[in-house]
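Quick one:
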Amino acid sequence: MVSRLAGIDCGTNSIRLLIADVGDGGLRDVHRETRIVRLGQGVDATGEFAPDAIARTRAALTDYAALLRAHGAERVRMVATSATRDAVNRDAFFAMTADVLGAVIPGAVAEVITGAAEAELSFRGAVGELDSAAAPFVVVDLGGGSTEIVLGGDGVAASHSADIGCVRLTERCLHSDPPTSQEVAAARSVVRERLEVALREVPVEEARTWVGVAGTMTTLSALAHDMASYDSADIHLSRVPGSNLLAVCERLIGMTRAQRAALGPMHEGRADVIGGGAIVVEELARELRARAGIGELVVSEHDILDGIVLSIAG
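Output:
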């Protein structure tokens, strides 16, 4: 029996929707969409959501609710991650989601999940199509507010959620356009400090394959493969050699926002923060080569969204 289910992932930078048919054959996409709403704008500095950020998120969620109705989704699970964990006025956000989603599916409301839960959902979504012979996997979900690092094979063996997302790092350290060498050095220092803690908890030395998910990773793959425009089908399960990855990251870090925005595969809402994401990826790439001998990144278009839908499929 096939069920039509939906997952919504509301992060620091984007809100994403997956409507899928779920049966014995796994997931079949009906509709998949991303909107950049920057819900976490200023949360690192102020500790609360800005009213205009909630308004942008409400507008996108209203459109998603209409899609749930149009496609006949039976159930939906909406999860909120890093920014919502940190915001003191998150009750206003939850009330908004209950109002918008509840009008379509009674009782539906967003839920905030822990970094560990986020890591597990990301891992489940990311490795579903990968050959088990390539395990153990280290899955890196690089978001706007946090980066989840997850090690596992059949299931999660260890995970850590580090507060080094692309939005958080940009707002904290990368103020100039392009960023100065001093700002980049400060950002690297923050990333290395957070990774030192993360890699004490997650023994990446055991990993054989590095899998990257979410917008920074997929955009880096598109640029490394010289795509004229973003092509989800070609990006999914693409492989990026370490030398190519580092070259793309270095180029992005040194660019102005306007130069990044002019790149064909670049989403307009990502151009101002992807430099921060590139710094995280560079530091991770160096650690994984040194600790596990991994010199290649596998990029998956399937991630926490797929994990969210599978979590309500029973």
